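Journal club prep, notes for RB
We'll compare a predicted complex against what the paper describes. Inputs for the zinc ion case:
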Amino acid sequence: MKAMLCGCGRHLEAANDDGLVRETLAHRRQEHATSVTDEKLVRRVVAENAYRLEHVAPYADGEGPDEEFGPEPY
Ligand SMILES: [Zn+2]
């Protein structure tokens, strides 16, 4: 995963640089329609500012919710 923080504080992420460029373009058109959205510029910004986003597992091994053996409901 690649990720980048937009100047507005919005966190953008995608599987790779190309995806991140598309995400950034879409975000800029939606949220920053008044500013110039040049794909070459966005591509350069992504290349310079994007960082790798390591996969983070929701639970570490063996750290899932405990199984409970409570009283039967009936
Ligand atoms: Zn933004």
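Talking point for the session: The beta strands are 2-5, 11-14, 51-52.
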